[in-house]
């Protein structure tokens, strides 16, 4: 007798080759196999000819009206008979199934599945069906190496043994509350539904189970964080207050609020896993600086990871300035991929000895030879640029430090309860005082001269400008060409000013020098590709001129616009474009209408639609087999609530009704044993 925990190769007919094919589909155990659901059903539902369109695949049920006649031509043959459906008589033709004739008699009721030809009132039959069993034909996702039919056959084989033996993952009370099928019924009805309504209930039950199990995992991760990992950071409160007083500005109320949330979290002897969300320019860096300083006052180290070299350089620089300014002698170092071997070795030695307080870098920080003396906090800037894997890699790097992930991208609800479901969230919902709303205009390329004239006016009064050149999908070299051409044009246009050119092909040192020159106003106009997209902070820059703006996504445009309006001067964004699609126009309109990142993110979701969000891996929404977390968001939220409620109950994992779930989680989660 086969059970659900067996490996699939216990089934007859599963040799090494099939096993391979099954593994590729993610099927390892019998449980995986019976949980491999059809993605749709061929609807064999009955209809009548007058309601059937030409070319439809349908099932007609009727009385055989003329005796079947088999005609042969060469090696082929056809079987024909008349079928009376209510009052309409149609002709049914089967090709190459002569044996059917023996089983069909005039006056007999039969159901035939096939393709309807309306003009000829004829049905090309595919099969005679037994309506009660075959009403819906399940269609399985298959691969080159294994057909849907084989998969179906294996499922039937396995189900014959396993059916009726399964406990439910979703506890009884929830199943009653939300009218869900128990697991046996659910799986049976997913594979062999008697009708569409049953298939629907089964799918709802399966989606809920999928969401609920997923949310249970997140809750268990969260529990593990709270109860076991992490150490309390015994920071020096007075020193932190002094640092705050020494800042060149007064913190906003929102910054103060999130800093105290973070500090409280750090003090607790639990692992911090916190997402800091705040629109571009809301001042997240200084919040991170205070959290990192706190760790240093407790004798530990901090790391800050940024998605680009430029941003990492900028962070290293501005952190150093902040600490110097406060008269604090912290050692902040930058680890880049361009470092010479000997220099790198020295740096890593100092890091391991604890001589470096804060290490800033790109994902180069995740390399295995980067060992800290005592890492107390890892900050991840522009977290949405990193994958979940990198987040995990940081955690696995030795001691499991506290994590502070930062993002300007507002998190739609779907993401917040799926991709970030295990994190606590702090939000900066306010910009520093004195910021003037950035004015955004759009114009066609024929007005480019006006735009350039405007840039000149701003620079004449002492401000600086960015000019961002078009984004050529997949072609960095064309990006560079465009930027170079613009750079040369601007040098001719502005002989009295310094123009800089920044793109991804420059060396790190070149980038560093350029950014430093721009920051110090030795360069007034910076022509750049999107390498400046995130994080760059130059307060004196007041114009962001974006060429072919319709080539950029809404989130990118918002990030680019966020490079200006960082000081007290009025700032401007000029979008130059002749959009060719409605979608392009809509994005530009949205940019002109609002500077609110949250509204833009919402608008972005609407414009792209959920299909695309799910289609693009980078959206960060985890993939589900049955449920769609965007369409079924309410169900996902309910599942989350139920998971939270369940794990908050004492001894929930000892209760009889939850044993199947506990077994399942301990079987499928690698680290489950750490939770109990
Ligand atoms: P982001 O949240 O986009 O990372 P930054 O941390 O780069 O924003 O901050 C944007 C700019 O605002 C920086 O120049 C920073 O020094 C400045 N800033 C941060 N907090 C304040 C504040 N409370 N008052 C005035 N300026 C601030
Ligand atoms: Mg930033």
Automatic annotation (TrEMBL):
Helicase C-terminal domain boundaries: 447-611
Reaction catalysed by this enzyme: ATP + H2O = ADP + phosphate + H(+); Couples ATP hydrolysis with the unwinding of duplex DNA by translocating in the 3'-5' direction
Molecular-function annotations in GO: DNA helicase activity; hydrolase activity
Alphabetical keyword list: ATP-binding, DNA damage, DNA recombination, DNA repair, DNA-binding, Helicase, Hydrolase, Isomerase, Nucleotide-binding
Any Pfam family matching the protein: Helicase_C
EC number: 5.6.2.4
Organism superkingdom: Bacteria
Domain Helicase ATP-binding: 265-428
CDD domains hit by this protein: DEXHc_RecG, RecG_wedge_OBF
Gene3D superfamilies: Nucleic acid-binding proteins, P-loop containing nucleotide triphosphate hydrolases
PANTHER family xref list: ATP-DEPENDENT DNA HELICASE HOMOLOG RECG, CHLOROPLASTIC
Family: Belongs to the helicase family. RecG subfamily.
Role summary: Plays a critical role in recombination and DNA repair. Helps process Holliday junction intermediates to mature products by catalyzing branch migration. Has replication fork regression activity, unwinds stalled or blocked replication forks to make a HJ that can be resolved. Has a DNA unwinding activity characteristic of a DNA helicase with 3'-5' polarity.
NCBIfam families documented for this protein: PRK10917.1-3 (NF008165), PRK10917.2-2 (NF008168), recG (TIGR00643)
Protein name per the record: ATP-dependent DNA helicase RecG
Species assigned in the record: Leuconostoc gelidum subsp. gelidum
Annotated gene: recG
């Amino acid at each position: 007798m086969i059970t659900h925990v067996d490996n699939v190769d216990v089934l007859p007919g599963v040799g090494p080759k099939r096993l391979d094919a099954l593994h590729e589909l993610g099927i390892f155990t019998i449980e995986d196999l019976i949980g491999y659901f059809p993605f749709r059903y061929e609807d064999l539902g009955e209809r009548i000819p007058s309601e059937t369109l030409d070319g439809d695949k349908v099932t007609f049920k009727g009385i055989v009206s003329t005796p079947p006649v088999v005609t042969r031509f060469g090696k082929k043959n056809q079987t024909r008979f008349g079928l009376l459906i209510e009052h309409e008589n149609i002709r049914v033709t089967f090709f190459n199934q002569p044996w059917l004739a023996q089983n069909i008699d005039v006056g007999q009721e039969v159901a035939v599945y096939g393709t309807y030809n309306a003009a000829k009132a004829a049905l090309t039959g595919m099969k005679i069906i037994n309506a009660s069993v075959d009403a819906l034909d399940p269609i399985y996702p298959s691969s080159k190496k294994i057909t849907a039919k084989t998969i179906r056959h294996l499922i039937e084989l396995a189900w014959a043994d396993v059916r009726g033996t399964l406990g439910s993952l979703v506890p009884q009370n929830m199943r009653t509350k939300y009218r869900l099928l128990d697991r046996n019924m659910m799986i049976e009805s997913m594979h062999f539904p008697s009708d569409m309504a049953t298939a629907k209930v089964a799918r709802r039950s399966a989606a809920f189970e999928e969401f609920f199990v997923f949310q249970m995992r997140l809750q268990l991760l969260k529990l593990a964080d709270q109860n076991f990992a992490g150490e309390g950071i015994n920071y020096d409160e007075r020193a932190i207050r002094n640092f705050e007083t020494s800042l060149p500005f007064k913190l906003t109320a929102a910054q103060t609020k999130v800093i105290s949330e973070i500090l409280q979290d750090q003090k607790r002897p639990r692992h911090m896993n916190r997402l800091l969300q705040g629109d571009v320019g809301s001042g997240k860096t200084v919040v991170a600086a205070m959290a990192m300083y706190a760790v240093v006052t407790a004798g530990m180290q901090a790391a800050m990871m940024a998605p680009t070299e430029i941003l990492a350089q900028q962070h290293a620089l501005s952190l150093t300035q902040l600490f110097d300014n406060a008269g604090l002698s912290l050692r902040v170092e930058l680890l880049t991929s361009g470092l010479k071997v000997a220099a790198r070795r020295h740096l890593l030695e100092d890091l391991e000895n604890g001589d470096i307080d804060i290490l800033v870098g790109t994902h180069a920080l995740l390399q295995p030879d980067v060992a800290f003396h005592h890492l107390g906090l890892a900050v991840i800037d522009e977290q949405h640029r990193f994958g979940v894997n990198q987040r995990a890699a940081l955690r696995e790097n030795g001691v499991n430090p506290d994590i502070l992930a930062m993002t300007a991208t507002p998190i739609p609800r779907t993401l917040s309860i799926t991709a970030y479901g295990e994190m606590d969230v702090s939000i900066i919902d306010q910009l520093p005082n004195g910021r003037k709303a950035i004015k955004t205009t759009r114009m066609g390329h024929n007005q480019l001269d006006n735009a350039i004239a405007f840039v000149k006016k701003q620079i004449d009064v002492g401000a600086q400008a960015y000019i961002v050149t078009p984004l050529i999908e997949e072609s960095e070299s064309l990006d560079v060409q465009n930027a170079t051409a613009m750079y040369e044009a601007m040098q001719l246009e502005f002989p009295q000013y310094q123009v800089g050119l920044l793109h991804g092909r420059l060396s790190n040192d070149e980038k560093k020098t350029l950014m430093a020159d721009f920051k110090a106003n030795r360069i007034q106009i910076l022509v750049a590709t999107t390498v400046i997209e995130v994080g760059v902070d130059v307060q004196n820059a007041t114009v962001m001129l974006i060429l072919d703006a319709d080539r950029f996504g809404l989130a990118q445009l918002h990030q680019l616009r966020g490079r200006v309006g960082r000081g007290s001067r009025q700032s401007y964004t000029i979008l130059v474009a002749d959009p060719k699609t409605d979608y392009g126009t809509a994005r530009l309109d949205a940019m002109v209408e609002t500077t609110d990142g949250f509204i833009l993110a919402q608008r972005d979701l609407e414009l792209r639609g959920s299909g695309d969000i799910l289609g693009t891996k980078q959206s960060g929404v985890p993939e589900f087999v049955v449920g769609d977390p965007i369409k079924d968001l309410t169900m996902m939220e309910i599942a989350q609530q139920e998971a939270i409620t369940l794990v908050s109950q004492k001894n929930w994992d000892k209760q009889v009704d939850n044993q199947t779930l506990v077994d399942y989680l301990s079987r499928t989660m690698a680290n489950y044993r750490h939770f109990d």
